[in-house]
């Protein structure tokens, strides 16, 4: 292929095509066919009849449900509020009741309602559904937190191109300080969206901002550090880590019990799940599980700091060699006359680097 311009275009088409494949596999694999996999539910009752009923439900559902019995309705409510079960069925010949917590997962609540509605219908009585943890009226499906996650993610990984590519001439220390500033800005925007703008958070907005900062800073530090090693492939890597694997495993739309084992496993330690579940804990479940989710976000931030620190150590000798070869920025008339071929070459290299950085920024923001 003789045309350099055509080669340049084809090389830059590799990234969006790989993104197309990755996004299709991730999103369709995670969201197209949601089915229960060991969905935890409870049957209320301590009598032998309740235990027989629970075993009957389990036998009929197979691996789709994990069924336990609890002695009282209050015990079932506690399990729902600690998100240990997705639904709890209270048998009754006249008024059976299904307890759910839709703030934990609207889709999960719908799934257990689908399971137990036919059970009540067989008895010829209507099923009463009681929601013990409803989301706020401004976010009736509870999915607003998932879209907040998307906004924070885009603001974070798109900024990596500006900090890593356009800021490549800056020292890592300066880029790290800029990263702190950008993460504060992104999380501040997230807090405004969650609070005054869309009213997803009716309380504890400062806590939501704190988790948004941890989440954004982790992504930014990982990206800025990786850019030293991956250059223009950083965009694709960030998309894989913080979109393809992140959104799909966050639990924002489907809890892990409604997904296949791969995404369900990622949910246990991925940063998007830490943010979504952490904010849910803060807003709807009395901080239950909050420390675990905050710890997840802290670990990701620590990973980012390690990656950035490693990149700084890697860059240090290269910058030292560059400084030795270019002790000053000023060029005398004699030097300009003596080395006419060097300066244009350096200018061309710098121009090429600037163009590459601009292309990377455009790719990232475009995505």
Give your account of this protein's structure:
This protein has 367 residues and is of the alpha/beta class. 67% of the residues lie in helices and 7% in strands. It is built from 14 helices and five strands. The chain has helices spanning 4-31, 48-61, 73-81, 106-122, 144-166, 172-197, 205-230, 234-244, 246-249, 261-266, 271-284, 290-325, 333-338, 342-366, and strands at 39-44, 65-70, 87-90, 97-100, 128-131. The protein has a five-stranded mixed beta sheet, with helices on both faces. Helix 5 (144-166) runs antiparallel to helix 8 (234-244) and helix 7 packs parallel to helix 12. The longest helix has 36 residues, at 290-325. The chain is elongated, with a radius of gyration of 27 Å. The two termini are 28 Å apart. The relative contact order is 0.11. Residues 329-343 have low confidence and may be disordered.
Write a concise synopsis of the structure shown:
The protein is an alpha/beta fold.
Largest sheet composition: 5 strands, mixed
Low-confidence stretches: 329-343
Shape: elongated
Query: What is the terminal-to-terminal distance?
Result: 28 Å
SS element count, helices: 14
**Beta-strand proportion:** 5-15%
Largest beta sheet: what is the strand line-up? 2-1-3-4-5
Helix coverage percent of residues? 55-70%
Structural class: alpha/beta
User: Helix and strand string, N-terminal first?
Assistant: HEHEHEEHEHHHHHHHHHH
Q: How many beta-strand runs?
A: 5
Gyration radius (Cα, Å) is 27 Å
Average pLDDT value?
Answer: 87
């Amino acid at each position: 292929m003789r045309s350099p311009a055509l080669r340049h275009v084809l090389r830059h088409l590799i990234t969006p095509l790989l993104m197309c494949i990755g996004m299709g596999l991730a999103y369709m694999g995670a969201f197209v066919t949601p089915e229960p996999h060991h969905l935890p539910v409870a049957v209320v009752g301590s009598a032998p009849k309740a235990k027989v009923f629970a075993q009957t439900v389990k036998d009929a559902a197979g691996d789709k449900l994990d069924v336990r019995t609890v002695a009282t309705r209050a015990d079932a409510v506690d399990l729902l509020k600690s998100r240990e079960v997705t639904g709890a069925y209270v048998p009754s010949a006249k008024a059976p009741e299904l307890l759910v917590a839709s703030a934990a997962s609207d889709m999960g609540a719908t799934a257990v309602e689908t399971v137990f509605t036919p059970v009540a219908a067989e008895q010829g009585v209507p099923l009463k559904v009681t929601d013990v943890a409803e989301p706020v009226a401004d976010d009736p499906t509870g999915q607003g937190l998932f879209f907040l996650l998307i906004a924070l993610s885009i603001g974070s990984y798109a900024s990596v191109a500006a900090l890593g590519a356009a800021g490549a001439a800056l020292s890592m220390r300066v880029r790290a300080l800029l990263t702190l500033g950008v993460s504060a800005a992104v999380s501040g925007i997230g807090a405004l969206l969650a609070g005054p703008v869309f009213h997803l958070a009716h309380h504890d907005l400062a806590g939501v901002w704190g988790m948004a900062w941890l989440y954004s800073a982790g992504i930014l530090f990982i990206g800025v550090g990786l850019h030293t090693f991956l250059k223009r492939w950083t965009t694709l890597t960030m998309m894989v880590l913080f979109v393809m694997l992140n959104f799909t495993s966050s639990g924002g739309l489907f809890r892990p019990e409604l997904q296949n084992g791969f995404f369900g496993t990622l949910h246990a330690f991925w940063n998007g799940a830490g943010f979504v579940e952490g904010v849910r804990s803060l807003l709807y479940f009395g901080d239950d599980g909050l420390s675990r989710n905050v710890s997840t976000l802290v670990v990701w931030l620590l990973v980012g700091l390690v990656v950035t620190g490693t990149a700084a150590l890697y860059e240090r000798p290269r910058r030292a060699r560059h400084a030795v070869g270019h002790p000053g920025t000023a060029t005398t008339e004699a030097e300009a006359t003596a080395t006419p071929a060097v300066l244009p070459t350096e200018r061309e290299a710098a121009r090429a680097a600037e163009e590459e950085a601009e292309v990377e920024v455009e790719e990232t923001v475009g995505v």
